[in-house]
## 1
Amino acid sequence: MDFISILSIFVLACFVGYFVVWSVTPALHTPLMSVTNAISSVIVVGALIASAAAGSATSKWLGLVAVALASVNIFGGFAVTQRMLSMYKKKERRDA
Amino acid sequence: MHEAASVPAWVLLAYLASGVCFILALRGLSSPESSRRGNFTGMVGMAIAVATTLGTHQLATLPEIGAAILIGGGVGLITARKIQMTAMPQLVAAFHSLVGMAAVLVGAAAYLNPEAFGIAARITPIASPSIISIYPVSRIEMGLGVAIGAITFSGSVIAFLKLNGNMSGKPILLPLRHVINFGTLFAILALIAYFTQDQSPWVFFTVMGLSFAIGFLLIIPIGGADMPVVISMLNSYSGWAAAAMGFTLHNSAMIITGALVGSSGAILSYIMCRAMNRSFLSVISGGFGGEVAGTGAASAIDRPYKRGSAEDAAFLMKQAEQVIIVPGYGMAVAQAQHAVREMADLLKNEGVKVKFAIHPVAGRMPGHMNVLLAEANVPYDEVFELEDINSEFAQTDVAYVIGANDVTNPAAKSDKTSPIYGMPVLDVEKARTVLFVKRSMGGVGYAGIDNDLFYRDNTMMLLGDAKKMTEEIVKALG
C-alpha cells in the first residue's frame, strides 16, 4: 500500500471514530475506555512480526516483551469490559 | 513501497475485517443491551488480527510467542477478575501505559531490524559492506510512533501513581515548566526531522528518552480533580501511537483502530472539559486544584449550618415523594455504592421514587459513577445524566448528595469570581431539602472552593463517613 492509500484509510477512520464515539451513551464511558484500551493493543501485530523475524536477537526479544505487554492488555481489557458490561441491568419487573 | 505486491490480498482483507470488527465493537456501546455483543465482536477482531499475523510469518519462535501470550494473558485475566470497580481509573491508566510501552518496544524492534518489517532498502555501494537504509517516510512514522508511545507510557505511569494514591494528587509545579515543556517538544520534533537525514542510533534513542521525559513533565503539574481529562487524553495518545505504528507497518487494522481510539479519547477529553467549563489547554497546562482557595474558604468556616442525624435523614426521605441521589468521588473512596443501593431499595419499598443524577466529571474517569452503581445492581434506567435530570430537582423533595461537592456548588452559576464559574452543575439546591453527606465541615472540594450549599436553610449536613452514614440511614429505615 502506498502512503496516500494508508493516509486515506486513516482519515476516513478518524471520521468513523468521531461519529461512532459520539453515539456511545455516557453511562458506558468507562467500558468505552477499557475496550479502546483492549483494541489499541492490536499493536501486538507489530510485536508478533518482530518476534517471528530472524536477523536481530535484540529485536526479537523486544518483540516478545511487547507481545507479553500487549497480551496483558488484550485479555485484561476485554475481560474487564465484559465484567463491567454484565453489571448493567435494566429494572426488574416489579409488581405495581 | 514495493513490498505491497508480496502481501497476498486475503491478508489485507483479513486486517480490514479486523478493523471493521473494532468499529462494530464501539458501535455496540451505544446501548447497554448491544454492548456485550459489541465486546465479543471486538474479541473476534483481535483474534483475526493475531491469527493473520501468525499465519503469514515464519513460526520458528512460536513456543516463545506462545509463552509471552500465556504470561501476559494470564496476568491480564487475573487482574481483570480481581480488580475492584472503585480502582477502575488506576487500572485503565496502567493499561494505557502498557500500550505505550508496547508501541515503544515495537518501534525499537523495527528500528533494529527494519528489513523484517519491510521498511528498508539494502544499498550496496561499490567496494564496501551493504548498508540498510530505512525509508525516510518510515523514519518519520517510526519516530512519531515511538515518541507518542513513550509519552503515553510515562504519562500514564504518573497518572496511575496519582490515582492509586502512591503520589499526591496535588499538582507539582516546576519553575519555568512551560519553557521546559515547549523546549523538549520542539527538540523531539526537530530530532525526528533530522532522523530522516541521519538514521544513527543516538537520534532514535534521544527521541525516545526525551519523549519519556516529556510524558512525565506533562502530567506532574495536573491535579487530581483533572484526572478525568488526563486519562481520556492518554487514551487518545495510546490510539495515535497505535496508528503511527500502523503507518510504519502498512497495517490497516492498526490504522483503523488507532484512529478510532484516538478520536474516542479526544472526544472524551472534550466532553470532560466542557463539563468543567475549562479549555483543554488550561487543563493540560496544569496547576488547578492545588492552590489555596482565594476568597471565601477561610472566612466561611464558622458560618452557621444545620446538622442532622441519620434518623432525621431517614425520616425526611421516607416522607418524600421523590428522592434524587447525587453520587461523587467520595462515594467511590468510601465504597458506599452498595449501601446506597440498599437505601434506595428500602425507599422504593416505601413507595418513594428514587433516581440517580450523575455529573459527567463525578469521579476520576468518564462514566466512573455509572459503573459503580451498576456494580451495586442499580438498574441503569434509574440513572440520569446532568441535562436529563436537572429540571427535576425543583419538583424533588430530597436531594441526597454523597461524596460530590464542586459539581453541586451553586457558586458556579452566580459567583463570577469563583474558579468554577460557568461550569454546568446539578441544581440540587432547588430541591425542598438537601441532605449533604460529608466527612467534616473543614475540608473543601478538590477545586479548593467553599460550597455555599452547606449553609443554606434547606440544607442538612450529615457529617461522617459516606458509607457509615448511609448504613445508619438504612438501619433507621428498616
## 2
Amino acid sequence: MNWVEFDRVNLGYGHQSVVEEVSFALPVGSSVGLAGPNGAGKTTVLKAMLGLLPVRSGRIARDPAYRRATGYVPQRGTITEVFPFTLEEIVEMGLYGKMRPWAVPNGAHAEMVRATLERLGLAAFADKHFRDLSGGQKQRALLARALVSEPGILVLDEPTYGLDLAQTQGFFELLASFRKERSLSLIIVSHNLHELVMHCEYLLLLHQGRLAYSGPAKALSDDLLSRIYGMEIRLQGGTPEVIHG
Amino acid sequence: MVDQPGFFELIGFFHDALVVSLLTGAILGPVGLFLHLRGSLFLGAALPQFAGFGFVVASVLAIPEWIASSVTIVFFAVAAAFKPLRKFDGMTLEAMIGLGYTAAMGGIVLLLSLTKAEGHAAELLLKGSMLAATCRDTQILSWFGVPLVLLLYLFRRRFYLVSLDPETAGTMGIRVEIYEIVLFAALGMAIMLTLTEAGAMACFGFLLLPPLIALTLCRRVGTLFLASMTIGAVGAISGVCLALKTDLPVGPAMVLALLCLWLAALVFRGVRKPS
C-alpha cells in the first residue's frame, strides 16, 4: 500500500516550471531519500508532497489515513529566535494541529511532550530557551516537535545541515530507532548523497526538474551519478566518492 | 485673573483622553507583538500612513473615514501581493512597502496642501488629537478594540505558530492563509481605531515599543501578550499625563514615555541576575 503517489506531476512557481513529468509511489513503511544537485527541484517536490504547493498538471494521491498523520522537520534555520520560546513550548506546538484553535494544552498534552523529550534525551533542557540550545539539540527539538503527535510519516528537510559527524550519526541512529518502534515512513531531503545511500532504502534522484532515478538506494550506478553531478563519481561499497585527477 | 487649573483638575477634565489612551496602548501593544515575531515592523510603520491617507481622502470626499482607510489598506495589500510587480529588479516586498509608505506620506501632505489644511497633516501624522477624545471614542474603542484583543489572545498559540513556522503549521492541516488574513485585518482595524487620536507616529510607536520592552523584560512567551498590553497602557497614560503637565503634544509625549520605559527596561535587564 502506498501513502503517496505522484502521477506525471508538473510543479512550478508563477510562470516558471520547476519539476516536470515526475511519477513515483512511496510504500507505507519505506525510507526514501530525495536527492539532487542545487536547483533540481527537491524542495518543490517536498512541498507538493506535504500539500503546500498545488500541482500545475498531473495528480498527487495521498492515502486519507495518512493525510493528517505527517510530521515535518524543517531546516533548522527557518525558526526565528527572537522570541523566548522554551524547548518545551516548541515541542508542544507539534500538538496544535490536533487541538482546537482556542484550546489550552492540558495534562495529557504535557505528558506527551514530556515523554517525547525523554525519549530524545532532551528532558533536562525542557525549560531552556530554544535559541540557547546547541545545533544538535535544536535539530532533535524539531524532530521531537514532529514526533510528539505520533505521525505515521516523517518528512525531514536537510536534517543534518550544520551538524558534525558525531551529531549526524547520533541523529540517524535516533531516527532508525523511532522508525523501528513506530513503523514510520520516512522521506529525507538532503544534499548529502552519502547519508541517503547509507540510511535510506530507496532513492529519488532529481536532475534538472526531472526524475533521473527511482529505486533502491544501493543500486545507483556510477555512470548516472557522474552524469548528473557533472564529475566522475564511483560508488565504493555503496558510498559515492568523487574521483580526482 | 483666572486661576490656571491644577494638574489633577486637568486629568479630571481630560478623563476621556486618559481612557482612550489606555485602550490605544492596550490594543496596539499586543498587535505589535506579532509584527515583531514575523519580522514585519516596517509594515507597522507603513500601514498607519495608508490609513492616514485614507482619512484625508475621506475628509476631501466627505465619506466615512473607516471606508476610505479600509479601501487604501486593502489596495496596498493587493498591490504588495501583485506578483508581476516583483519581476522588476529591486522590487522586494520591503521595497514595495517602502514605496507605498512614501507615497502615502507624500500624498497626505500634498492633498492637505491642496485643501489648505496643512496643519491637519501635522495633527494626523505627528501629534494626534488624543485630548479631543470623547465618550464616543471610548465606546468605539471598547466595542471593537476589546473583542479584537480578546480574539488575538484566545487564538494566540495558533498565531504564534503560523507566524513562527508557517510551513510546519500548513503540514499540520492548519489553514495558514486564513490566520494571516485575520492577523492583517486585526492590524488594519487596530490602526484605524487608534489613528485619529494617537497620530501615525505614535501608532507605530505603540506597535514597536511595548512588545520590544516586553521582550526585554519577559523570560517566557506566556507573559509577552499581557505584558505588551500593560506596557502599552502604562506608556499611553504616562504620555498623556506628561503632555498635560508640560503642555506638549500628546502623540510625541506618549512616544517619549515609551522610550523612557524602554531605557528603564534595558537598565533593569542589565542589573537583573540571570536565572
